[in-house]
Structure formats: structure tokens, C-alpha cells
Amino acid sequence: MSQKKLKVGVLGATGMVGQRFVALLENHPWFEVTLVAASANSAGQKYADAVKGRWALKSQIPAGTAGLTVKNASDVAAISDAVDFVFCAVDMTKEETAKLEEDYAKRETPVVSNNSAHRGTPDVPMMIPEINPDHAQVIEAQRKRLGAKRGFIAVKPNCSLQSYVPAIHPLMKFGPKKIAVCTYQAISGAGKTFESWPEMVDNVIPFIKGEEEKSEKEPMKIWGRLEGGKIVAAQDPVITAQCLRVPVSDGHMAAVFVQFERKPSREDVLELWKSFSGKPQKLGLPSAPKPFLTYFEEDSRPQTRLDRDAGNGQAVTIGRLRPDALFDYRFVALSHNTVRGAAGGAVLTAELLTADGWIQAK
Q1: Tens digits of per-residue pLDDT, 128-142?
Q2: Mean pLDDT of the chain
Q3: What superfamily would CATH give domain 160-336?
Q4: What are the residue boundaries of the Semialdehyde dehydrogenase NAD-binding domain, all occurrences included (predicted)?
Q5: What are the catalytic residues?
Q6: According to the 3-state scheme, what is the secondary structure of the chain?
Q7: What predicted TM-score, i.e. pTM, was given to this entire model?
């Protein structure tokens, strides 16, 4: 990277994920937040005023962002002229979000999105940077479809799968065939705190709209292949999921059961987890955790409060690997849902796309 930082806009900057983007990008060595945008209701206010009373993070609002005037995220032309690329975390309908992101891409502004609107679009890469960095190549086909030269859309997958998919991935050579997973998901995944959602105190809700479908289907695209200018979803493994909302501020835990074509030894599994390193680690990207995966031998780890911030919230922690009576193995895995699972995963994706030349200064 050159010394000059890329100018970044954050769309949906006043929401919880938008706030996390703003916090993570403070003092970033490659990117500088020069513009924040939200709905028309917030436009025209100073950022600090727009989030007053609803700043959800423990850290303070970054001084460099606090005084920025919030723009209207729908003002595509003006925002595109002012930044090199944008992160997107808008709170709009799926159809509205899809159109907005394509409008930015057509205006030659790359979009790295936390939203789900384009996760199913065949020529939009949905990336966990350590797992499928090669999927960025589909951007060439997407640009042809959109009539763009430098604009494009890249997305990150849903937060519910960010713990168990990285744990399964190093084991793919053994042919995982069936996976059953139950996720225990923090309230920040709904954009809430205990103050704003008192009903979650001392409570578990056994339903999160859309999460189970995403947990079952999105890994198939991540593990898919590039063919004819699109990503073709993998057919295996078959995944069944249940997703529960639990009274935790941050951090999604997954209880995972897996059956293989060729059952590995316990030692094989542990060694593959220990040695796994993806392209972000090899490139030394600013947000890449080292190590990406950490296994705990203690029966009581990982724990959400103790381990969600591993690798500055970008790492995945694993524990309790043991034989299972119905499957080959079971284990638990943990990831930080608003860092690795949301804004942080998007920042790492943008770093990879920048390192590989897909995102450049205008």
C-alpha cells in the first residue's frame, strides 16, 4: 500500500453495525472515514448528534468522525464523487438495498456490504477472506453485467455461520457430508442492547427470522466454484441449523455436529486447526488475526465473555472436540458477531480486495 489512505464512506453509519465500522476504522493504516451517510432523518446532523443517546459501543465516538455531517445515503452521485469506496450497512428493504448498492457500483464506487441483499446474486462474491479469496475473480463478470469499469459489489456472509464454517473448512479434504448446528446468538445481532431490549434479560428466544435458512444455504456459496462468470454453489455438505437468541451482549456460539466421508483422527483435526492460515495471514493484512483459529483443551472454553475478542474480535475460538454417538465428532465454536461477523469481516474483505488491486484510489 502507498502512504496515502483511501477515502471511505460508511452507509448506514448511525446503526449498530455502522457504528462498529466507524470504530474499527479509527486509525486504520489503509482507510480513512471521510464521509458518513444514513437515512434522510439523520442527514444534515453532525455524526455525534445523530448517534447521541444510541451509541452502543464501549469505546468513544472517534474524534475524526464525530464532527462529520451525515449525508443522505441515497445521494449516490455526490457520495460517489467524494470517496474511493463505501461500506454498506443500511437499514432498508432487501429490494431497496440491492438497488442502492448497484447504483453505487454503476457509479464506479466499489461497495463492500454487510447487507444480505446481494448474497444470492451469482456474480457477487460472498467472502470469508481466509476461505474463498479466489471468488473475487467473479467481479470481472459482474462489472460486465453492470457496465462498470471499477465499481462492483462484494458482500460478507451472515454472522450466524462465521464460527463454524471456518472450523469446518480446514477439514474439507475428509469430505464433511452432514452438519447439524445450533447457534446461540447475541442480542447485538439484532442491533440491540440490554437497555433497548429488556425482554431479553433472563430469556432465550428460539427463533431469529431468516437465520436458519442463511446458516444452511450461505456456506454452499462460500464453498462453491467459479464457472462461466458466476459462483456455482457446492452440493455438500448438507447442513441443518437451529438459531436461538440468548441474553449475551456480543458473541455467537455454535454447537456443531459433523459426519465425514473419511473420518479423521482427533489428532488430525487438532493439527489442521492449529496450522490453518489463510491469504489474509500470509499477506499480513492489517485486520488479519494471527492465529485465525484457536483450540482450547479446557472443557469450559471458549466462553463468550472471555474469548469473543480473540484476535481483536476477528479470530474464531473452538473447544470441546469429542466423538459423537450419531455423527463422527461434535465441538463448539465462537466468533464476535459484530466484528468478524459483520463490520470487521467486511473491513478484512476490503483489505484483501485492496491488496489484490480490486479497490484503488479514484
Answers
A1: 999 999 999 999 999
A2: 97
A3: Dihydrodipicolinate Reductase; domain 2 (3.30.360.10)
A4: 7-139
A5: 159, 252
A6: CCCCCEEEEEECCCCHHHHHHHHHCCCCCCEEEEEEEECCCCCCCEHHHHCCCCCCCCCCCCHHHHCCECEECCCHHHHHHHCCEEEECCCCCHHHHHHHHHHHHHCCCCEEECCCCCCCCCCCCECCCCCCHHHHHHHHHHHHHHCCCCCCEEECCCHHHCCHHHHHHHHHHHCEEEEEEEEEECHHHHCCCCCCCHHHCCCCECCCCCHHHHHHHHHHHHCCEEECCEEECCCCCEEEEEEEECCCCCCEEEEEEEEECCCCCHHHHHHHHHHCCCHHHHHCCCCCCCCCEEEECCCCCCCHHHHCCHHHHCCEEEEEEEECCCCCEEEEEEECCCHHHHHHHHHHHHHHHHHCCCCCCC
A7: 0.97
